[in-house]
Write a structure and sequence with these properties.
By secondary structure, the protein is an alpha+beta fold. It is built from 18 helices and 27 strands. The strands form six sheets. The protein has a seven-stranded mixed β-sheet. Strands 21, 22, 23, 24, 25 and 26 form a six-stranded antiparallel β-sheet that branches. Strand 25 and strand 26 form a beta hairpin.
Length: 571
């Protein structure tokens, strides 16, 4: 995987096209884009991607593209170029603060390639024009200054362009840093409104994560790496790339210990992805079809196993305590306790396959129908690790196996996806793991992926010596089988399948007015009313509104095992 030939970044071919992205009207939130012919005439059809890898939903990026000329629109994301022009131009509205969309204002920009350009054959050049007083521009594309506010990069192909987000900012709205570890230069660039930590603190913390991950795998798929950060009010999210990441966080909270730990876990997660999903990848995830959904049953591996290790890396790096790690391990069970009906409706494989239509569209039925491949996938990692360690008498563990899997299945960050070896299938992965470790695991782990039932996490907890506790954390969910939302009124948020609430004919969005004739109010008052009513008997009378109707419903409360409970570790 580390062949010298494929690591070469030299490309002797002349650029086929020359692209200019003008951000000088930053306050309008619009990028002015121009594509000029280079060694090739412009394509007759320009087609925009509908999604970007790592975020599995069709997002219809072309909805923000206007005034593409000279061309005729022939489909939602496709234009026919008219009259063989030497160039085309258009504008793109950039005002969505997520890691999979572009954002531009008078102070800074966070740009995602798939939103800005149609699918172009490479190589091509991209020039970015920034407002003259802006100082920072950072991206794995390695832009170089070619004039005041002008920067140029050479792009290998469309995968390269789509895989390299860009951040830029005016003075006071960003900062840069760097460190070198394991012979690899790592760059940090943040943009946005506020960063409550110094660059030195970030450099030191990121270096620990990088050094631990590099040791974990015994090498890297890249020769250089970029941490691109977008800080803003209530922002949270990350997107992995082959030799960079774009992560968002509320930078004003970074001084709080809990936020700082959560932020570093996010950084560790996206960094780990450069190996797991960008280098070791399920067959469907590279080469990519940017025109439609790319289905895979294996996001439990790409996301869940990465989630499993994003707590372990900070533990190995000495950044969190063993107690904090144990708590983190059990967090995934609290997130999806065994009583959640979704366990019986969708397997991990099904939930991964349906990511495109479910994962980013959480609704009132999610706990009934979706096991997230993050939490349940991480839990599977824990069960798999326990099985490996137990069966091999600790000769093997999942970390050691991941390292071997990377050596076997990984590709380097500069390989052309179209000609690189294909991604893994589950049968290849498990056959490799069994042969290498001598531990039978294929059938067992496969059943965890495809069965519609909870995982045997109690066995893993026992193996790792963690005594668990179970406390009711959501009183209404545990006793009535519905989640309540408290705001100006008390409403039913979710009704669990086969619960007391479902039998009593409660529905999402019903507004709860009274329990046994006592008016409900804010959360404590409502829960007190509920507790008092329950002390008097099994049947409660609820007064509700649904639309413009007042309803009376009788509900028989009971304990719903494994619902509304928090799993903790005994001290
Ligand atoms: Zn992830």
């Amino acid at each position: 995987m580390n062949s010298k030939k494929s690591m070469s970044r030299k490309n002797p071919k002349k650029p086929l096209y020359n692209v200019t992205i003008d951000l000088t009207d930053a306050h309008s939130h619009r990028a002015q884009v121009r594509i000029e012919q280079g060694a090739e005439k412009l394509p007759g059809i320009l087609e925009f991607p509908v999604w970007t890898p790592g975020s599995y939903m069709v997002r219809e990026y072309s909805r923000h593209v206007t005034c593409l000329e000279p061309a005729t629109k022939v489909a939602k994301n496709r234009w026919r170029v008219e009259g063989q022009p030497k160039s085309v131009s258009y504008e793109v509205y950039c005002f969505e603060r997520t890691v999979r969309t572009s954002y531009l204002d008078e102070n800074y920009a966070s740009l995602v390639g798939a939103t800005l350009l149609p699918l172009l054959a490479g190589p091509f050049t991209v020039e970015i024009k920034l407002p003259a007083h802006w100082k920072i521009l950072s991206s794995a594309l390695k832009f170089r200054a070619i004039g005041r506010g002008r920067y140029l990069a050479h792009v290998r192909d469309r995968d390269h362009w789509i895989d390299c987000p860009i951040v830029a900012s005016a003075p006071g709205f960003g900062g840069v840093g760097k460190f070198r570890v394991g012979g690899i230069n790592h760059h940090i660039a943040w943009v946005g409104l506020e960063c409550a930590r110094s660059m030195k603190e970030m450099e030191e913390a990121f270096e620990k994560i990088a050094s631990t991950t590099l040791k974990f795998f015994g090498g890297a798929p890249f020769k250089e790496y970029w941490f691109l950060l977008h800080f803003g009010h209530k922002l949270y999210g990350g997107l992995e790339h082959r030799d960079s990441q774009l992560s968002q966080f509320d930078g004003s909270l970074l001084n709080e210990a809990k936020s700082w730990d959560g932020f570093l876990r996010l950084i560790a997660h996206e960094y780990f992805h450069s190996w797991n999903v960008k280098s070791i990848r399920p067959k469907a995830l590279g080469p990519f079809d940017y025109h439609e959904e790319n289905y895979t049953e294996d996001l439990w591996f790409a996301e869940g196993i990465t989630d499993y290790f994003d707590d372990m890396i900070p533990l190995m790096a000495g950044m969190i305590s063993m107690d904090a790690y144990k708590k983190a391990r059990l967090r995934d069970i609290t997130h999806l306790p065994d009583g959640v009906p979704a366990h019986r409706r969708r397997s991990l494989a099904e939930t991964s396959f349906d990511a495109w239509i479910r994962h980013y569209r959480n609704d009132e039925d999610s706990l009934n129908t979706d096991v997230t491949y993050y939490s349940k996938g991480a839990l599977l990692g824990w069960c798999w690790d326990a099985h490996l360690q137990k069966s091999s008498r600790k000769r093997w563990n999942l970390a050691k196996l991941m390292r071997a899997i990377w050596k076997e299945f990984g590709i380097d960050a500069y390989e052309d996806l179209a000609s690189a070896k294909p991604g893994f299938t589950r049968s290849e992965l498990f056959a490799f793991a069994e042969k290498l470790t001598g531990v039978k695991q294929a059938k067992l782990v496969e059943s965890w992926i495809t069965d519609r039932k909870p995982l045997p996490w109690r066995e893993a907890a026992k193996f790792f010596g963690i005594k668990t506790t179970e406390n009711v954390s959501d009183f209404a969910l545990h006793h009535l089988g519905c989640q309540l939302a408290f705001g100006n009124s008390v409403t039913v948020k979710t009704v669990m399948s086969h619960s007391s609430a479902e039998s009593a004919e409660l529905a999402p969005q019903d507004e709860l007015l009274a329990i046994n004739g006592t008016r409900v109010g804010e959360s404590e008052k409502t829960l007190n009313t509920l507790r008092k009513a329950m002390a008097k008997g099994r049947d409660l009378e609820l007064l509700l509104t649904r639309g413009d109707k007042i309803l009376k419903k009788k509900i028989r409360w009971k304990k719903h095992p494994g619902l509304g409970v928090e799993i903790g570790a005994e001290a």
